[in-house]
Amino acid sequence: MAGKLNRKLKLTATIVKERLSFQKIPVANDKGAIVDFDENTDEKRYVVFDIDRDAPVGFGVAVNRTNMSYILQRRVGSRVIKATIGNTRNLALADARARAKEELAKIVETGRSPAENKVLEEDSLQVADMTVAECIALYRTYLTEKSRPAKDSSLRGLEQALNRIKRPEINLADTKVGDLAGEKRIKEAFETLKAGRRKLRDGTKRAKHDSQAYDTPTITTAELTFRWVTRAVDYCCIKENRVAANQKRPPSLHHNPFVVIREEGMYRSRQELEEHYALTNARNPLQIRDGSLGRFLDALWDRRKIANYRTACDYLFLTLLWGTRRGEAAPLRWKPADATVAKTCSWVDLKGGLVQFFDTKNRFNHTLPLAPAARRILQLRFDERDKGLEWVFPARSKRAAQGHYLDSKAILQGLRKTGGIEQLRTHDLRRTFATVAEEMCSYLMVKRLLNHRSLRDVTESYPQLAYDRILEELTRIEHAMLSTAPLVALGLLPVETSTQPMKASPRRH
Fold this sequence. Notes:
Elements: E1 8-9, H1 13-19, E2 24-28, E3 34-39, E4 46-50, E5 59-63, E6 68-76, E7 79-87, H2 93-110, H3 114-123, H4 132-145, H5 152-165, H6 184-195, H7 219-247, H8 260-263, H9 270-279, H10 292-304, H11 310-322, E8 333-334, H12 339-342, E9 347-349, E10 354-357, E11 366-369, H13 372-384, H14 409-418, H15 426-440, H16 443-450, H17 467-482, H18 486-492, H19 495-498
Parallel strand pairs: 1-4, 8-9
Antiparallel strand pairs: 2-3, 4-5, 5-6, 6-7, 9-10, 10-11
Helix pairs in contact: 4-7, 5-7, 6-7, 10-11, 11-13, 11-15, 15-17
């Protein structure tokens, strides 16, 4: 049956993210709209082709048992050439279409597949003759194609670094790496970017007239930019060293000229960074003792009563109660029934009393038991959700590319004013959790709750913290934080604990 289906769809981000699955094959009408689904009785990989006007002919999505990939399939002469564009989990549909157009142009020009072109390029790799932009492009390809692809935030950071070195006053992007061996231009470019100011795009204006951000030298920007460029050129140098060894020739470049920034101490030291953070008030955890945590919780609870703000408020509540990084809680789903799918996403299991954050910043999955207040918020969301909706925090618009809630900056600004709090960022909620936890728990427990892991910390691997103990500590931390706002505690904590003072408990070391 699967072979007779019309597999030409007008793809959207929602279709790719939410409607395609290995178990069911979509059936489309002549306009490319899904009208039905048929069971994938053969349990074989299938492909749906994109007929949107922005998509090149032959572009589509290959649906496998464990993942989905954007692909390109095109006849050139007597050959059908195929190419994998990227994983749907890591690449937005619009970006995949744009990348497919670029790959198609190369295929038509060379008559070869991307894999064949890659082999030829590697055999002739000469870093000294490559521009800095070409090194960054090659490094980006590596980041997207390795076994665990880089996160979107990393790719954005690399793209921003490229855009900065393209600026006329920097002008390094189109320079050959071999021409920078003298290192003078690199140091001058670093100092220029370091002494610069943030710039507004043409046609835009400051959101806050009293903001001082555009009057501050962009030291951090310069450091991030040149660290990215150094990594990219390092990768290309190492790659050429392997090729040169196989070809029994010397590499074209024996030294990455961008390491001069590090070797000559132009990056700030750890102590200098800490002094900078203190001077700029970059870290502002809410405090129990000065009342700022209680004022924030009261403001958040009041704002939650407005239906349009409920999703944003619940997201902020749980970010605080779990101590998660910005964005880690946003893509949570209600746990999928398919165990294979559950291994590749973040989910909440109300029945099992667990939450899992998939592929976090340190590339580990992070699992926590649900303490009473977090469970209460999630149960309310589950009971009030639209049937069939998979996201715990769905986006307001069904057309949103991500499908889930994304940005809390606007609501945080309002809560900050209402609560009389000078500075507050989303990551400060994680710092608040850490500050409270540090006073109540052992060092290893705090590391476990914050998902701070290091493969080099041998001691960390010995203690096995049981889930009942983790739940006990999370419950105590919840109680300590929510007790600063009695009305919030009454609304979220069990009656028998919401009115009781927190019991003192010795820290376990």
